[in-house]
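Re: the 208-residue chain
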Amino acid sequence: MKVDVLNTDGKSTGKSVDLPDAIFGIEPNEHAVYLAVKAYNAAQRQGTHKAKEKGEIKASTRKIKKQKGTGTARAGSLKSPLFKGGGRIFGPRPRSYNIKLNKKVKSLARNSAFSSKAKDSQIKVIEDFSFEAPKTKAFKDVLNNLEINNSKSIFVIGEADKNMFLSSRNLKETKVINLNELNIYDILHANTVVLSVSAVEKLKASNS
């Protein structure tokens, strides 16, 4: 699939890149996408929840009342889950929510997401660019030129660029991310995926 390469003014550079069908032209696998999104969301959970159980409560071990003759149930400790301030029965414990996905499933999910965006004409390719210093206004001008300033977008670049990241950080509707850190949730969440030429070349190399 041939796509024109745009410059920061939003105009064609006269060049084009070939987006491989193996990445941008497959039939999307919805189940693989579901598994990848599920794994991403699960990984966002800290898993640091903790409630004290009976053995972890600090309280007197004196018997509360005599065993018989009170007309109520037996009670031997303030730590009992039946009393206020007592331990919790089977309370939450720290755990990891990470879900393991095979590399092939991850790759299929990513390619499915890219193919879905390509099918809906939501992918743009832009020449590699950078800023001499962090400037939000400069990045906003690029968004305006590409006509994506009023929608959610993601810029996928080949190498980490601090100035580009800082320039986009205050803009809620867009995000700059290094290709190595790209995840399927970011692809699906964006209305437009803007790929740099270097990112496209790296995608081709990783899929070969």
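The two ends are 16 Å apart (CA to CA).
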